[in-house]
Specification:
Double Stranded RNA Binding Domain; 8-stranded antiparallel beta barrel; signal
């Protein structure tokens, strides 16, 4: 038996626990690597290749193309930056990983004796990435800093699941290659939970059968509706607009 706690927060608040790079699945790259003026010598492509080999998902530059789990909670994403730390004789780089509060959670250094810039910097990056662990995502306990200093009231409901694996005949949905299970709470509510049984969103019925009020994992509110058997959520983004995210029924 596994108990799943679903917490609804009235206000956002700051809770920061130690996180490791391997705790994350999603990585975004800095728009421009620090210390590289005219060219980054192919370090962006080399970094993407290295991260993908370690089972990380490197996100596109356009946030509207991000998967729902990354879009609705930026604290599920690490920012990777590469800094030019070269000296007179060696090409050197520093790879920094920052969380949603711009806090550096890991720094990796690499150096190469290859004097040619492109080959040398890529070799240095390869050395720096050697000790970066493979992605083993966990539920993220970091949330963005808030202007509010008061602890919000929390209402918690416990849902008992028989097993962490989807039950036979369970309704499954997919968004950006990530699987979600539909779990019924009562006649008027259900949740979508990922493979770790972490609730992504809670849905409450309205007076229309195909429209739902939605409470997202980060506490924000929005709406969802049914479309050709799929669940469509209108996810709020930073510019106060909404992006359509479709969860396709398997």
């Amino acid at each position: 038996m596994k108990k799943l706690a679903i917490a609804f927060s009235m206000l956002s608040f700051s809770v920061i626990f130690a996180q490791k790079v391997s705790d994350y699945q999603y990585i975004s790259l800095a728009e421009k690597f620090e210390g590289f003026k005219d060219s980054n010598y192919g370090l962006d492509k080399a970094l993407i290749k290295s991260l993908n080999s370690k089972k990380y998902t490197v996100l596109p530059a356009n946030r509207n193309e991000w998967p729902a789990a990354a879009m609705q909670n930026p604290c599920n994403v690490l920012l990777a930056d590469v800094e030019n730390d070269s000296g007179m004789l060696r090409n050197k780089v520093i790879v920094k990983f920052k969380d949603c509060n711009n806090k550096v959670i890991a720094t990796q250094k690499g150096a190469s004796s290859i004097k040619e810039f492109e080959a040398g910097f890529q070799d240095a990056l390869k050395q720096a990435m050697t000790t970066v662990p493979t992605s083993v995502p966990v539920e993220n306990s970091v949330v963005q800093s808030s202007v509010s200093s008061n602890m919000p009231e929390m209402t918690t409901r416990e849902v008992v699941l028989e097993d962490t694996k989807p039950a036979s005949g369970a309704e499954m949905y997919t968004n950006q290659n990530i699987k979600f299970q539909k779990i019924k709470l009562n006649d008027k509510q259900f949740i979508l939970a990922d493979k770790s049984s972490t609730p992504f969103a809670t849905f409450t019925a309205t007076t229309r059968n195909d429209i739902f009020r939605v409470k997202l994992q980060n506490g924000s509110d929005t709406i969802a509706y049914l479309e050709n058997g799929n669940i469509v959520i209108e996810l709020p983004v930073s510019d106060n607009s909404y992006v359509k995210q479709t969860f396709k029924k398997d």
